[in-house]
């Protein structure tokens, strides 16, 4: 009830940022028939490639699409009208994860401390730190992985208790560990936490070896699925130098500590590196702030170590919870190079164990034989303070929801709240461009280039808006700069074709073909090329090329629909019926294909041809 209350405003929000790639542009969520195909592909089809293999996240989006549908051809406001159900799914997944955490803590701490388990789960559920995993549709991988991870640990503890069904609980735990991995890569932490629990409990060697074999099986299945799946290699980011990583890791600890205790300024885009900020004054101010943050982070790390050492003597379960939090935090600590230095949603699982450690430190076990908690005076004060803090957290979470109302609101609020990065300016520029505000969009791309002069996506945006504003010289100069970056080759070729067509009257079909060939797995470029062929009177060529494309990617309902349109235009009605039928099978909400199929089928019955 508390979670539904604080996240209620989220149901009025639209699709934001990566939601467009994972919902609007992913053909593999359009039909239940494509579920097996979804396990054979990484995320972000037809978008900037990423190294994310999360088939269970895609499976939940398949269910959402079947239940709620989507206005794929409409304007952003028309599309956002369908986002309600997708947000509702995220909220209930978060509730499921909170209940799974409660179940884990109840099993871990015992039924007599159920009140403590409920308190930790409640604080964790309403904490505004989780909003970027709950309010953001694309962030649902975190609740999914947490739900399966917490459930796996609970079932594992049940298996250790013995009994006739211990094997069933252990088997369920192994399956949930696999599901956590298939939800998000960080789900691997749940498996490591389980082995930490086994070592802490000093289980017999036979049990430990049994779980080692089960873990090997889980990892074998996961690796077999992941490394045989098709993916497009993501752009190579420059890794953080090894000598810098401990410094950035210390800063991240300080940044996260502030977010946990006082989540006042929340935003999706955060950075604790010493990247240029624009002016000399801004660079100096940022450098000074980062040095203080480094020192604070080192002090906090020392404090955490001291806390753990003391907890080993006074509250052993709290010490174990700290170990679990550290294991969950390690992958996102910046000791390993990631695509960002800080992200609020990365604390989704670590914060659960951190809150558990705090609760176990403040509220130690009751004396033997005591059923009712006997609180000391300082514990009563702590309970009152925590209660007030929890209410404030819920209010802050409720206030945070409108920040994700739509694309423009999200980007503008992120920039205003301190997420003033090149990536945010690029995203805002792209949104403004789709709304036809080309001057404003151009200014955003200029700002992005001022912050990151070597950002190719900003160059492409600058070139595109310059074309709209008829500044062809600037567009060509910017495209020449962007051509140095291989992963944007297709976009460069496409924009150059548009520029040549406007400046010199050259037909852009050949440029569109070159762009499609440069990104053979991206339907967006291929579709533009095929439509250009059709518009220039080469419908038969377009149909042949599309048929060849569908032999390699037969899972695209949109492509089958276009093939049906082309074949209908060529009066090949029997083949068109088959193409439309395939489109209907691969997209449960493709009403246009269904209508075309109905019309052609009725014509077949009247005229006597056999589709």
What would you note in describing this structure?
The protein has 611 residues and is mainly α. It folds into three domains: 2-226, no CATH class; 245-366 and 374-399, no CATH class; 537-611, Serine Threonine Protein Phosphatase 5, Tetratricopeptide repeat. The chain has 29 helices and no strands. It has helices at 2-6, 19-24, 35-38, 55-68, 76-80, 83-109, 114-126, 131-134, 141-160, 166-183, 188-201, 205-226, 245-261, 280-314, 316-329, 348-362, 377-400, 407-416, 422-434, 438-451, 456-468, 472-482, 489-504, 509-518, 523-535, 539-552, 557-569, 573-586, 591-607. The protein is globular.
List the main descriptive attributes of the protein structure presented here.
globular, Serine Threonine Protein Phosphatase 5, Tetratricopeptide repeat, about 600 residues, 29 helices, single chain, mainly alpha, 3 domains
Sum this structure up briefly:
The chain is mostly helical.
Rg measurement, Å: 27 Å
Task: Indicate how many domains the architecture comprises.
Answer: 3
CA-CA gap between termini:
54 Å
Q: Helix share of residues?
A: 55-70%
